[in-house]
Design goal:
Strand order of the largest sheet of chain C: 3-2-1-28
Distance between the termini of chain B: 39 Å
Number of domains of chain B: 1
Shape of chain C: globular
Strand content of chain C: 35-45%
Chains: A alpha/beta (385), B alpha+beta (88), C mainly beta (371)
Shape of chain B: globular
Largest sheet of chain B: 5 strands, mixed
CATH class of chain B: Alpha Beta
Oligomer: heterotrimer
CATH superfamily of chain B: Beta-grasp domain
Number of strands of chain C: 28
CATH topology of chain B: Ubiquitin-like (UB roll)
Strand content of chain B: 25-35%
Number of strands of chain B: 5
Largest interface: A-C, 38 and 28 residues
Largest sheet of chain C: 4 strands, antiparallel
Structural class of chain C: mainly beta
Order of helices and strands of chain C: EEEEEEEEEEEHHEEEEEEEEEEEEEEEEE
Helix content of chain C: under 10%
Number of helices of chain B: 2
Number of helices of chain C: 2
CATH architecture of chain B: Roll
Strand order of the largest sheet of chain B: 2-1-5-3-4
């Protein structure tokens, strides 16, 4: 791919840096970078990456522009009030640099869509203001093998670090837990408007360095910034061998939201019962990574009405005596109508020494609501109580 | 045996707003005990009853992460208490 | 003294103050903005004193104390914490994630309080909440890990700590998906007290524990009478019997008898109020059919009446958590509840008519009255 003369003229000043050159600019042009959050951090990141000529720039944000955003979210202007941020951002960035492609993702990242949204991009930049999204994105990047430039701000302070797959710690290595993310956000604690400008520019710098292969990224380093003292500090970080997502034996193999995760983690800490939401079970079945066996503990006549493909039927009352039918190499996932009997089945499995039995929380009723509305639960002509 | 402890902003209500305090101790454990004597209650906000550093908190001695409370602290070192930030 | 309605939310503590005629309510707060407030409780022995169970996102759970009716607060010097586990018992290395429940101790033991935590633990203070110690009889009970094995997706909560007004050594408590437990020796020994309670999710219907009590209450004027709002119905127990009777079967079938809170009349042990929520197969836990209503019994659970005047008649999906409903001691018994949507509703006449007295608060966890 070669640069047009218009492009060469636009990027002349950075092309003239020997470290970038035409080759570096070509790399920027063929790069696809996703910016998560078009807010305080996302604004400067997106502006600078668009200006630098990143060929495809994705913006993820489900919010609308509010008046209290404008002191720091410099991607927007007063005329943008009320508009979807992703859309307003796309317009602004396209007008800054019509040579690039800007893709607006006006959605909220969830476990159900994070893989699909992140997959087409080469580098992910995280500017979200939610701890749970931060962990979701981190986990997705580790699992998908994507570099991630992460930053966070609060009042007059900021932090930044870069994750490169296989080359250093991820966000979870630094802060392993995602429990109950009520760390005050800018909306509650306040933030100096220009603060994210500094951190966002650092993130954009990191993304450009990753794309062009120039310089040393912040891998294995946590950069902190204190605006009041006007001081940067740097801390060494190492990858944790026991990191739940990037460690030697990861327990997180699917990117999940914090709420879904904590149920499982709490259960694991309390004796090894894994509670799976319908979305999680669907993901595991579709992913075919885990060797699973689905055990439906309903009565045979309920099972006869409708079952998940591949499920075997062992009614709860018979389970204790038939547990040895479950091969120990497979993870049993117990299923019933509402999630109560399947939880009891887990209790029985644990007592029999089966490690980490799983169950479908909310049961097939939840599956029918969230995954497959056509799933048959009741006999035709009338519902069971 | 004096080191400096930099206090994460959410904890500054214990130190009357001070972002940096002097402390004594040869290990992190001793430094935290000293802080607790001066600013009662601050330790439990960082370390739980099983002596684990709380989630979302990290302690660094100079620039190196300290994962155990037995980590050594030398005179002139700076101990940093870092909280996870989440704003964007 | 008009009293104060304290509202604990996910983002701080608020207070509602009635005017002289209890028509208008003035909202003050928030105090501790950004903190999660699970419970705010007045000391009935010392009305100026209150305790607040709180947690900031990542700084650990704690208890705040006030000696001036909630104007100012100080943190407990030694918040509830499990004992340090010995090297050989890693499974017992528990750390308090939240202080969830507060109960003032017996009238003859001024300054005594109990607290319930998540993970399920019981703690006691003897100095008005300044220093807390684990109650070893419960926390180190060999059965505790089994009693608290499951819990909810938010963790196993220990709640509804009750002190028999006749005897400081007679205690009850409840654990979500664990059951009701009783001690007659001040907490040194505990036994399950779940006979008669349904637990459809347990393999063995006669299991001694594993049940899911949502809220347990004891009547101060008739302490041999207990009521329980359970995941599987509303129950009543008249001691010394050990078997609960399901009084929720008298509720209309379409409504059912599943909810979180149960509130007793201050002086009449036969009168109680519940707020049923849909306990259907996926447990949405909101007002049934989008029509919020409070149900009241005046005959110990034999019959129930629907009270919904003033509440929205349709498309109103309320969730009211177990600590978010209470009664006051006014002559006509004021009733109050707070929703997870941030609204506070009040009735000045025992539930006959309701009005919304505060809106747009953060998710409400606790609504309690301080006289």
């Amino acid at each position: 791919m070669t640069l047009s003369s218009a492009e060469r003229a636009r990027y002349e000043r950075q092309i003239s840096l020997s470290e970038i050159g035409l080759a570096g600019q070509e790399r920027l042009k063929s790069a696809r970078v996703l910016v998560i959050g078009a807010g305080g951090l996302g604004s400067p990141v997106a502006l600078y990456l668009a200006a630098a000529g990143v060929g495809a720039l994705g913006i993820v944000d489900c919010d609308r522009v509010a008046l209290s955003n404008l002191h720091r979210q410099v991607l927007f202007e007063s005329a943008s009030l009320g508009r979807l941020k992703a859309e307003a951002a796309r317009e602004r960035l396209a007008s800054l640099n019509p040579q690039i492609e800007v893709i607006a993702h006006a959605l909220e990242l969830r476990s159900g869509n994070v893989r699909a949204v992140l997959e087409p991009y080469d580098v992910i930049v995280d500017g979200t203001d939610r701890l749970s999204t931060r962990y979701l994105v981190n986990d997705a990047c580790v699992i998908l093998g994507k570099p991630l430039v992460s930053a966070a701000i609060h009042r007059f302070e900021g932090q930044a670090l870069t994750y490169v797959p296989g080359r250093g710690p991820c966000y979870r290595c630094l802060f392993p837990e995602a429990r109950d993310g009520v760390v005050a956000s800018c909306a509650e604690a306040g933030v100096l408007g220009v603060l994210p400008g500094v951190l966002g520019a650092i993130q954009a710098t990191e993304a450009i360095k990753l794309v062009t292969g120039v310089g040393e990224p912040l891998t294995g380093r946590l950069l902190t910034y204190d605006a009041l003292e006007m001081r940067f500090r740097e801390f060494s970080l190492s990858r944790r061998p026991d990191c739940a997502v990037c460690g030697e034996h990861p327990s997180i193999t699917e990117p999940l939201e914090a709420g879904e995760r904590c149920a499982g983690e709490a259960a694991q800490a309390l004796g090894g019962v894994l509670r799976l939401s319908p979305a999680q079970l669907h993901g595991l079945i579709e992913g075919t990574r885990e060797p699973l066996v689905l055990i439906d503990v309903r009565e045979p006549d309920e099972f006869g009405i409708g079952r998940l493909a591949g499920a075997i039927n062992i009614p709860l009352a018979e389970l204790a005596g038939r547990l040895e039918e479950i091969p120990r190499t497979l993870t049993p996932v117990f299923i019933c109508r509402s999630g109560r009997r399947s939880l009891a089945a887990c209790a029985a499995a644990l007592s029999a020494g089966i490690q980490a039995p799983a169950h479908l929380e909310g049961g097939l009723a939840a599956w029918a609501m969230e995954i497959d509305p056509a799933f048959p639960l009741d006999p035709p002509g009338g519902g069971a109580a | 045996m004096s080191c400096v402890v930099r206090i994460a902003s959410p904890l500054r209500s214990y130190t009357a707003g001070a972002s940096s305090v002097a402390a004594e101790g040869a290990t992190l454990e001793e430094v935290l005990a000293h802080l607790e004597r001066r600013f009662a209650g601050i330790r439990f906000r960082m370390i739980d009853e099983q002596d684990h550093i709380r989630p979302h908190m990290r302690l660094f001695v100079n620039t190196t992460e300290a994962c155990e409370l037995s980590a050594s602290v030398h005179p002139g070192d700076t101990v940093h208490v870092i909280c996870a930030l989440s704003g964007g | 003294m008009a009293g104060t309605l304290w509202v604990g939310t996910r983002k701080g503590a608020f207070a509602l103050h009635p005017d002289a005629r209890r028509r208008g309510w003035r909202l003050s707060g928030p105090q501790f903005l950004g903190h999660i407030i699970h419970h705010i409780v007045q000391d009935p022995r010392e009305p100026k004193a209150l305790l607040m169970a709180a947690k900031t996102g990542h700084l650990g759970p704690t208890v705040y104390r006030s000696a001036d009716r909630g104007r100012t607060w100080r943190e407990a010097a030694q918040p509830p914490a499990f004992r340090k586990a010995e090297g050989h018992e890693p499974s017992e290395a528990l750390a308090v994630q939240r202080v969830f429940w507060l109960t003032p101790g017996h009238a003859t033991e001024p300054g005594s309080w109990y607290a319930g935590s998540s993970p399920a633990g019981l703690f006691r203070s003897d100095d008005a909440g300044d220093h807390w110690q684990p109650v070893a009889g419960f926390n180190d009970h060999p059965m505790r890990p089994k009693w608290a094995a499951f819990g909810t997706p938010d963790g196993a909560f220990l709640h509804s700590i009750l002190v028999d007004p006749r005897d400081p050594k007679h205690l009850y408590l409840a654990i979500s998906v664990g059951g009701v437990f009783e001690s007659t020796d001040g907490g040194a020994q505990w036994t399950p007290l779940n006979e008669g309670c349904a637990a459809d999710f347990l393999p063995d219907p006669t299991a001694a524990f594993g049940h899911d009590p949502h809220c347990l209450v004891l009547h101060p004027a008739a302490p041999e009478r207990l009521y329980q709002q359970n995941h599987c119905g509303i129950y009543r127990l008249d001691r010394p019997a050990r078997r609960w009777a399901r009084i929720g079967t008298a509720m209309p079938k379409k409504v059912g008898d599943v909810g979180f809170p149960i509130v007793l009349h201050p002086s009449d042990p036969d009168t109680a109020w519940v707020l049923p929520m849909d306990g259907g197969t996926v447990w949405p836990r909101t007002s049934i059919g989008g029509r919020p209503a409070v149900y009241r019994t005046q005959d110990g659970g034999r019959s129930w009446q629907r009270l919904a005047r003033g509440l929205p008649a349709r498309q109103a999906w309320f969730t009211v958590l177990r600590q978010a409903m209470c009664a006051d001691r006014q002559p006509r018994t004021g009733l109050y509840f707070g929703t997870t949507g941030g609204d506070v509703w009040a009735s000045s006449n025992a539930g006959e008519r309701w009005g919304c007295i505060a809106r747009h608060l953060p998710e409400i966890y606790s609504v309690t009255y301080a006289h």
